[in-house]
Structure formats: C-alpha cells, structure tokens
Amino acid sequence: MRNAGSETAWLQMPPRENPGTLFIWARLSSAGTRTLRLEGRQDELDEWTNLGERDVTSADWNLLSWSINEPGEWTLRLSRITGGGTPTVWMDDLVLTERAPWTNVDELEISFDNAEDQSGIAEYRVITDEGPQWMGGTNITAGAQLATNVAEVALPEGIVTGYVFAVDADMDRPNDQLRNWGVPYVARIDRTPPEAVDSVQATQADINLFYHFADIDETTEIGVRWAWDQAINSEAVAAGPRESDGMELSPWDTYIVRYVESDAGGNPLPGAPTSMISRATAGFTNILNHWDQTNAVLTDLNFDSFYRIEIAGVDEAGNTGAFVHAVGNTDRFVVTQGVARTQTRSDIFWTVATDEQGQVHREYDLIRTDATTYSDALQQQSRWEKVGTTNDYWHMDTDPIHGNDMRFFRATPKGRWQGARPVASEEIYVARSVPLQPGQNWVSFPGIPDTNTVARVFGYDLPQGSAPASATRVSWYARVFDEIPTQTVYLATGGAWEFSVGGEGNADDVLVPLDQGVVVEIPGESPTSFLFIGRVPTNGVSQEIEAQAFNLVSFRLPRRMHPSEMNLLESGFAPSFGFGGDMIWKFDRNTQQLPHFIVYNSLSQSWITSTGGSVPQGYFGPDDAIIIFTMGSTVNWTWTLDPIEKGLYSLPSRFLDP
Q1: Looking at residues 552-563, what average pLDDT do you find?
Q2: Predicted local confidence at residue 210, as pLDDT
C-alpha cells in the first residue's frame, strides 16, 4: 500500500456484523515508518469514524490489531495516512473476528478446519494470551499441542488474544520442519462475580416503615432498597474486577431480585413459588440494568404476608454475586365497619395506611353487587360494580335496595378489583332493607353487625310514640312452652329507645342477641322498613334448643334457605311419622298469620307443610325469624349451622375469579 501523491491508498472490506478484532500482518518494503488508520461506518452516508492508528516500523512481519467490539453491521477500511513514496506497506493474512461475548467458562472450546501442506501436517499448537510474533516459521514448540482440531483450552481471565498454528511434517533434513503464522482468536473471560450488595431493606407495612416509597400500595406492594459498600464507586467495581490486579472485566448486566412468601423470620413457606425479576422482566428494563439503581417496588403480592426478598448482581459474563436478603411484609386490607345511617344510606369503613401526620395517600374503590341470596357466584369479578372512589378510609352508598335483594359491599385499592388478577377485601358486608308490616314481624339478621346494640341495629327512623302501644316495639322471648317476652323496648318520641319490659330507662345500648329472632311490632297502618348492615358470616352458629318449647331463633345467614340446608336433622330435630315431631313456624307479615307449619316426614324422607305440600326452595328469607316448636323432642339439643362446613358458600378470599 503506497500513497500516490495526494491520493490516499485504502483497502475497504465488505460489511460485517458485530465486528470484534481486526488482525493483519504488515511490514515495510524498506526501513522507515508508516501509519495505518482503521475507519468504520454503519451507513454509507455516515462520516468515517476513526477506530485507531497503528505504526508499521519494520521490514519484518509484525501483527497489528484493532479492537472494535461493536454491535450491528459495520463497513471497515484501512487507510495509509502518511505521505506517498516508499517504503511501501505490505499486508497479508487479514483476519476479522466476530465480537466475542463475555463468558465465564473455565475452558474455551476451539475448533478449526484442518490445514494443508505438501509434506503433510504433523501437529497443531495453541498459544494463549499472547500476540503472534514473526519467527520465520521456526519455534515450532511454542504453546501447547492440540490432539485434534476441536479442543478445550484453559484461558486466564481478561481479554485473551491467542492463536492456533500448524506445524508441517517435512522432517527429511535437519531444521526443515516449519510452522505457519497462525490464526488469531480473541476471547473475553470473566469468572469473577459482582460484589455483594449491602444494607438490604424492605418495607414493613404493618409499622408504616415505607422509607421513600410513600406512594406504594402497602396491601399488595413492598418497596425494597439496598446500598453498596463505600468502595463500590463504578460499574467496573460493582460488576467484579479481576482479583489479581483489579483489571476491568465484563460490564454490569442486571440485578436479580428473588422473592418468596415466608414466615416472619424469612423462612419460605412450604410449596410457595419463588418469583424473580431482572432487567429482562417487563417494567424493570430501565431499572435493574443500572448498577447504581438501588431500589425497586415488588407488586401483585398477597395481602397480609411476609416475603423473603433476595438481591444479587449479575455481570455480562453471567456471573451472579452472593444473594443478600431482607424480610418485608404487606398489610391486610380489611373492611372494618358498616353503618346504616338512614333507611337508604350505607357507610362502609376500612383500614388504610397513613403517613406520620395521619394522611391517606392512596385511593380506594367501594364496590357492590345485589342478589337475593349469597353464594360463591358472587365471587366472580363480573358481578361487581363500583360505587365510587375515595382517598379516605370510608365511602357511602345511597342507592336504595329493591325488593328481596340484599346488597354486598367490598373495598379495594383503586382498580385492583379489575384486570387479570383482581383482588378485594376478604371481608364482605351485607345490607338489607328489612320490610316491616303494621302489626307483628318476626325478624332475623342476615349478617353480623359491628355493634349489636338496639340503637345501632334498628336506628331511630322507625315510628316513634309516647307510649309502647303507639311506638315501634322490639321483643325477645324465653324458650318455654308459653310465649312470654323477657324484654321489650320501644322507640320513644324524641328518638330514644326505652324499656317497656325487663328493664327501666334508656335502652339504646341494650345488646341484641343475634342467635335469637325478635318480634318487631309496628303501630299504625303504614308499612315501613329499616336498613340492616353487617358482615357476611364465615363462622358457624351454635345455640341450645329447648325441648317441649317455642324457640324463636335466627339462622343469621344472608341466604334464602330450605330446611334441608339448615343442618336441623343432623343437630337433633325430631322427625315425624306423618305428624307429631318437631315443627317449624314462619310468620306471614303481609297477612299477619301463621299459614302452616313444617315437619320432616321420615316416611317420605322429605320436608313437607302441614297442608301436605313440599316446602319450596328458598322458603325462608334472610330476615325471617322462625319458631322451632319442639313438640317431638324429649331432650334439649344443640343446633349448629356453619355455612362453610355445610357447603352453602366458600370462605371468601381476596381473589375474585375473573
């Protein structure tokens, strides 16, 4: 290569993908110095980029190399940039390796095609971590012998340049055996893992330990942060330099964050799956691939759970540093209270996380669904609709509840009840507008009120009067053969409950026994109602049933029930051969009559009415109190009714089935 006057001589190579290192043997035609420049570009419209200059200073062959190591397609050219005339630059055996990925192998596999020589090939040899030197074809014992053209070669850490050469078999006279120049290779070896991170911390939602993650949803998210030892001040150090001399090896690739549900001590729960995120995980690409990014937020976690969280660094060669762990936890999202403010207004309260000033920084949805009976079908996501969104710890619903419907409420962090993995509070509240007719009403409660006082259960909106005869009266009855009220309260003019039977003075705070039915008597001629609200029961009810007595009871479930679902026979209800066993009475509020009674006929093995007909499905409404008249029982028995064990519905979970 010789410049002609002002014309620069250059050698342009065809485009190549991911160029690594360019090797070329070069010498001068005579003594002197000439300079070669390697240039590259990715588009023919781009300016040429200077990739480095090398001097050719000898008439002997020497190996020149340029490390390019760029991704994508590049066009390269060699230019002689010094003046024209002699000496001329002679070049031979140009080799362009592909960009070598970083690897952490102990031994690198080398393979090559067999060489050819008139006298045959005696052996192949490999030199590691050394640039080829011109030796006139001598020094045939340099490096290590290779048994075949495929071999595993142990290499040191770092950017390793070596070459493989062949030795001919021409040994018919002394010093006649020669070697070729050799084919160069480049490997990038890194077996040193990144340093371990320091001071891993995870949020503890139950004690408001949020660090700088003030806006996380503590019910389903955990913020985790970590630090570096003060010696970590660069990507190269974080990724793990060569131990012998601190030489930079492969660059940083990603953090790996592993997490698994655990106990409070960080011991994984049996069978709990381990999740992992890295820069390859959607949403974390621009976070975990930076060595100096030291925090992340884990999402879609379970309520009220501890998690063992482990952090480690990974370099580009695939080395993983030591995992360092912390334990964090989420907060259970709990609906805590339902209050009936008026005949049409329900207020639902829940627990939320607040800052040090007691301020709420998250938004929450109150959701609802209406149904005549509670069942597992109400777990389905499609059944629920939003009442509203608030950044407070409560919300109201003022829409009226119609007919025989009940309204069920749940709360959820904003939007979490929608989407592919919906969640909401495990606690479900039920509201029922209990219809009352003038005269007697046998009333049960379809849920568990948070406060079961007379004032909180019945409110103050029912008809008032100056005396019991002209006011709403609520009575409880002893479980005896005669119908004797043990306690009666009435709603006095001015809005206070007063005793009529069984006490004196104010009765606002009298506790309503939830396993008993009550008789609510309404004066005048106008129907009315009161709004009941309470939690959907998840525990069983157990109560003593007196023999040979009228037992005014409540089954206290938000369901329409058939006697076969009520665990009566299993508990001790006496069947009859026709009639003569225990009986169940239900009061018709509209007609103010007892239309018939119900028995279990052991001959037909069915529940029948006193008129001989079958008992319809859903015969008892959720607010119907009933009398179990134990005419056939000779001893007391305990009636137990557990909706979960009985299979009436499953224990509500925080996950809604989509």
Answers
A1: 94
A2: 44
**Beta strands 183-189; 102-103: pairing state:** parallel
pLDDT reported for residue 372: 96
Q: What is the pTM of this model?
A: 0.61
Q: In this predicted structure, what is the pLDDT of residue 220?
A: 83
Q: Are residues 315 and 102 in contact, defined by beta-carbon separation less than 8 angstroms?
A: yes
- Distance in angstroms (rounded) separating the CA atoms of residues 554 and 449: 14
Q: Alpha-carbon distance 572 to 563, whole Å?
A: 13
CB 155 within 8 A of CB 107: yes
Q: Is 204 helix (H, G, I), strand (E, B) or coil?
A: strand
Q: Which of 191-205, 323-337, 339-353, 610-624 has the lowest mean pLDDT?
A: 339-353
Give the separation between CA 238 and CA 293, rounded to whole angstroms: 12
Measure Cα distances from 302 to 127, 273, 487, 617 in Å: 57, 12, 47, 38
In 3-state terms, what secondary structure has residue 519? strand
Q: Which residues of 518-556 are buried (b: 16+ CB within 10 A; e: fewer)?
A: bbbbbbeeeebbbbbbbbbbbeebebebbbebbbbbbbb
Note the pLDDT of residue 208. Answer: 44
CA separation for the pair 65, 94 (Å, rounded):
10
Residue 622 has pLDDT above 80, yes or no: yes
Segments of 418-495 assigned E as strands: 429-436, 439-443, 473-477, 485-492
Q: Phi and psi for 111 in degrees, rounded to 5?
A: -140, 150
What is the number of other CB atoms lying within 10 angstroms of the CB of residue 368? 20
Beta bridge partners of 268: 262
Q: Report residue 135's pLDDT band, with 50, 70 and 90 as the boundaries.
A: low
Task: Please tell me the distance from the alpha carbon of residue 314 to that of residue 125, in angstroms, as a whole number.
Answer: 35
